[in-house]
Amino acid sequence: MKDQVQQVLAWLEGQGSQAARDGMARYGIPSDRAFGVAVGTLQKEARRLGRDHALAAALWETGCYEARLLAAFVDEPARVTPAQMDRWCGDFDSWAVCDTVCLHLFDRSPHAWSKVEPWSRRPDEFGKRGAFALLAALALHDKAAGDEPFARGLLLVEREAADDRNFVKKGVNWALRAIGERSPALLAAALAVAQRLAASPEAAPRWVGKDALRQLASPAVAKRLAARSRVAAG
Fold it and tell me: What pTM value is reported for the model?
């Protein structure tokens, strides 16, 4: 495994560029432990490597930005443990690592739902963002879930919308918008939350609410959900 990790790191070094590293700062991504490799290139390499839980763990431990993204792409969701999820969440140091792990791995874990509420109380910015990135990812990808868990998620959205840290409030906003696009009932519930937040005297919840309303109150969203409901009804 050590040799394989070294081979992957050598490949990453060969694929990286200084220009890409320099560009990471514009998106708020730390570049001190990065090679500068495009995500699309990483995904192609992940397909070549195949799913490998042990390799994912070893890549994560390197602390390298691209190695951690690769870890999310090659890990086996069914073998991800609750303890691993907590460890990795505690290591999140950028929105990019947080969102990639939540969108491509953790939302497919059988333990995903059990982490949303406790992570929403985390004091660290990116760990707390992880709760809402995971909630948004579940809204996008968990086709089997009914409306109830997402309705509970809206309670967390409203509770935590006052957190004015940039990456937290953007994660809260993302979760609110993603939940609203799940079903007509959730759209109505999300719109109600967004309207209450938009009327807040505080800047952070007001921004979350107003930004979400721009998307959720659009005719396109209602039309898309109506069409989806007709298809589901047969």
Answer: 0.95
